[in-house]
Structures are given as C-alpha cells and as structure tokens.
Design goal:
CATH architecture of the largest domain: 3-Layer(aba) Sandwich
Number of strands: 12
Order of helices and strands: EHEHEHEHEHEEEEHEHHEE
Helix content: 40-55%
CATH class of the largest domain: Alpha Beta
Radius of gyration: 19 Å
CATH topology of the largest domain: Rossmann fold
Largest sheet: 5 strands, parallel
CATH superfamily of the largest domain: Response regulator
Strand content: 15-25%
C-alpha cells in the first residue's frame, strides 16, 4: 500500500520509512507543507501521515485544503501537540486518527492497519477480481476466460491499480504516482505504452474488460457487460 509521510523531522522520517518499508508499505516522503499538499491533492495514496507543525503551511491547513478539494484519503495526524483541545481540533479538522509524539512504532502500525480495515479501501487481498478477470499480485498472475499469464512488475502494478478502482476515471498523474512513484522521472509516453501492453494482456486471456482512454484526463477500466 502507498503511504504519504509529510514530516519535517528528517531523522523521524528516515526511521519511519525504514520500518514501514519492512512491512511492505510503499512510502513517499515530503518535509514541507505546500509540497506535501501538492502530493496529497494527487489523490494517489492509500493513507497520509501528517505532522501538524510544518514549514510553509501547517498540517491542519494542508488537511483542510485537501478535504475541501474532495480528497477523502484517511489521515493520521502525528504531532507533539497532545492536549485535549489539540486532539479535538485535529479530528474536527478532518483527521481520522491522532497520534502524539513520542510514540511506539507498533502503535502507529496498529493504527494504520485499523484504518485500512475501517475504510475497506485497501485491505490486503490474495486475488483481485472484476468482471471476467482476476489478478493475483503476489504471483503477478492475470487470469481470464482464455487462460492465465504472468505480468511484468510494472504491468502488474498498473493492473492492480485499475482492478482496485474499476469504473473510476484515474488521472494520468495518479497513475504515474501509484505505478512509478511520486518523484520518479518518467516520460509521458511510458504510461500509454504500458496501457497498450496491458490491453494486449487482456486480449490474450480473452477478457472483455476495456481500458478506455478519457481524452486529456486519463483511463478507466470498464466492464461492457454491466
């Protein structure tokens, strides 16, 4: 699962990133409020860990602007401000949970898992399925009415993103961030190339699902039988 960590304490970021990566999370890090908001607004993350005290824009303002823009991604505020008023202000401001520094990593990990279960958006699944197509992320195996085949790592990640949000228009920037990473330097044409590859894989396994181009916006996985 992809997490965004917006925290200006670089030592804490390094520690959390190391621990989260060991638990197989993908983590993007930002040390600045305004830059963090730009990433947040891409709507490319499953969960955001957000510090309150940040340079250029404080965490509550980042959260408020993201919520006003319609971003519903779960947020855990992580902060040294632990008074009752601070907690209430953070939760009323749109946070889903609130964790006071210093904290044990085990508690943060448990809260991340709890939000995942509660939202139902990104609980781990052995097999993703939609229409006549199924995909097993661990084996990177795509199956349809015409059989099964193995996908490359990049093809698999792209297939997983589409299958987790079928019938949803996924913007190009969202796909770049989820498949290649927020800071990756990727040519625009790479996305179109991998969508082309994935369409061929769908055809090979005789799936009727469509990866439809939404001109000027992105792509959508569609089931013509619905």
């Amino acid at each position: 699962m992809r997490l965004l960590l917006i925290e200006d304490d670089k030592n804490l970021c390094d520690t959390l990133c190391f621990q989260l990566t060991r638990e197989h999370y993908e983590v993007d890090i930002c040390h600045d409020g305004r830059d963090g908001l730009d990433l947040f607004l891409q709507d490319a993350y499953d969960l955001v860990l957000l510090d309150r005290m940040l340079p250029t824009m404080n965490g509550l303002m980042v959260l408020k602007k993201a919520r006003n823009a319609g971003i519903r991604t779960p947020v855990i505020l992580i902060t040294a401000l632990g008074e009752l008023y601070d907690r209430v202000e953070g939760l009323d401001g749109g946070a889903d949970d609130y964790l006071v520094k210093p904290f044990a990593y085990e508690e943060l990990s448990a809260r991340i898992r709890s939000l995942g279960r509660r939202s139902g958006k990104w609980e781990e699944q052995e097999v993703l399925q939609y229409g006549d197509l199924s995909y097993e992320p661990v084996l990177r195996e795509l199956c349809g009415p015409g059989g099964c085949l193995a996908l490359s790592s990049r093809e698999g990640r792209l297939a997983e993103v589409f299958l987790r949000e079928p019938e949803t228009v996924l913007r190009r920037m969202t796909l770049f961030s989820r498949v290649w990473g927020a800071d990756a330097e990727v040519e625009e044409a790479n996305l179109d190339t991998y969508v082309h590859f994935l369409r061929k894989r769908f055809s090979t396994v005789k799936s009727r699902l469509l990866l439809t181009t939404i001109r000027g916006v992105g792509y959508r996985l569609e089931n013509p039988d619905v």
